[in-house]
Design a protein that fits this description.
four-stranded antiparallel beta sheet, single chain, 17 helices, 49% helix, 424 residues
Length: 424
């Protein structure tokens, strides 16, 4: 069903009221949204089937980012994160892009790569050519391992060979390119790698060692762009400052590391909420941040448009799926995917990368306009007040006092709360 992601005043509602609104907007049932309650979500029995030596579960707050329009369609985006301001910043940035059509994305096919490492080849150059000559045979052998994937339009597509000089000699490294369709793809490519390794070893004349996917998913790229409104950002000076901040991140790896962390605040939260592999996505994104000259740089870029608005772009590998893994096991992940209403892994990647760009813009705007501490202040104060034991109506009163006193620390919150309860 079509969704309107613009929900003014959502932040002022209770958690239960928000669930009701989200259910109404997305067509989810009461049972669907009930799993967002910790008592109804992932239980110990389910967790015990997911990993080893289970002793319990750890809850992470799940919020919903609003205002997102991606490729002309509205989305309400579930985000799992413990960091204050992330959901709010992404929602606010999406609102600033919404007036200019929201986010526009494009992507390559969902191709993952398996690596087969072959050692001790006496003639590595000739080994490389022999493997390439057997390309058709190897691809057919790989596809025979997963006829279901082939039936759905995926499967092994190509084969490349690299010679990698190492301190233990020259290694012949074969890359099998596999279109994994709506899966993240690790299981599919690893199975194929295991199957073709003996034949590759025979052809190359060495011995195989590693047979596993690479998380440097540089053949599975998603790109997002948006124009953020100058006036909603705060005016021309803010636009110019964000462009200057972006330029530093492009040139300085110290700034780039934190700049990219801001991107990942959004991406990781959406990846985690949908039950995908956060470590794989993070590894792929950060490896993509290394430029051709070996320098770590910014993943996103901000530029001033001819009419003075802010143009933002982001290009990253995005290896996420809708089949297999925790996405199909974790009840909260299932509800999150249903809330999004995405039908393909590519569509999911589009939304996630749009969230990354929005979150990045939100952080850059806070830095360029008011400083990150002031931007975080009210949300951080709320966390501190809760840590001190404030509940219900006390929370707002303690938060206001912490901000007024400019002392957002637990010990001061405890004193304020004690004074409040004693009537002082």
């Amino acid at each position: 069903m079509p969704v309107n992601s613009r929900i003014p005043g959502l932040k002022d509602s209770s958690a239960q009221q928000r669930r009701t609104v989200i259910a109404e907007r997305t067509g989810l049932s009461e049972l669907d949204v009930a799993v967002f309650d910790p008592g109804q979500g992932l239980g110990v029995d389910q967790a015990d089937h997911m990993i080893e030596n289970v002793v319990g579960v750890m809850a992470i707050p799940v919020g919903v980012a609003t205002n997102f329009t991606v490729n002309g369609r509205d989305y309400l985006v579930p985000m799992a994160t413990e960091e204050p301001s992330v959901v709010a910043a992404a929602s606010n940035a999406a609102r600033m892009a919404r007036v200019h059509g929201g986010f526009h994305t494009s992507s390559t096919d969902p191709v993952m790569q398996a690596q087969i490492q072959i050692l001790e080849c006496p003639d590595p150059e000739a080994s490389r050519l022999r493997v390439l000559e057997a390309r058709t045979e190897i691809i057919e052998l790989a596809n025979a391992q997963d006829p279901m994937l082939v039936r759905f339009g995926g499967g092994a597509r190509d084969l490349t060979v690299r010679l990698v000089p190492t301190r233990t000699g020259v290694h012949v490294v074969v890359h099998l390119h596999v279109d994994v369709r709506d899966a993240m793809g690790a299981n599919a490519v690893n199975t194929m790698a295991e199957a073709i390794a003996p034949r590759l070893t025979e052809i190359a004349g060495g011995r195989s060692l590693l047979r596993i996917l690479t998380n440097k998913a540089d053949l599975r790229i998603t790109r997002a762009r948006a124009v953020f409104d100058r006036d909603l950002l705060g005016g021309e000076e803010v636009v110019d400052n964000i462009v200057h901040a972006s330029a530093l991140a492009e040139s300085d790896p110290y700034r780039a590391a934190t700049h990219n962390k801001g991107i990942m605040n959004g991406i990781t939260a959406a990846v985690l909420a949908t039950g995908n592999d956060t470590r794989a996505v993070e590894a792929g994104c950060h490896s993509h941040a290394v430029a051709a000259d070996g320098r770590y740089t910014a993943l996103s870029h901000f530029e001033k448009t001819v009419d003075g608005h802010l143009s933002g772009t982001l290009e990253v590998p995005m290896a996420v799926g809708l089949v297999g893994g925790a996405t199909k096991v974790h009840p909260v992940a299932q509800a999150a995917v249903k809330m999004l209403g995405v039908s393909t892994a590519s569509e999911l990647a589009d939304v996630i990368v749009a969230v990354g760009l929005a979150q990045n813009l939100g952080a850059c705007r806070a830095l360029a306009a008011e400083g990150i501490q002031r931007g975080h202040m009210s949300l951080h104060a709320r966390t501190i007040a809760a840590s001190a034991g404030a509940t219900g109506d006390e929370l707002d009163l303690v938060v206001t006092r912490l901000i007024d006193d400019q002392r957002i620390r637990v010990e001061h919150a405890e004193k304020v709360l004690a004074d409040l309860r004693s009537g002082h």
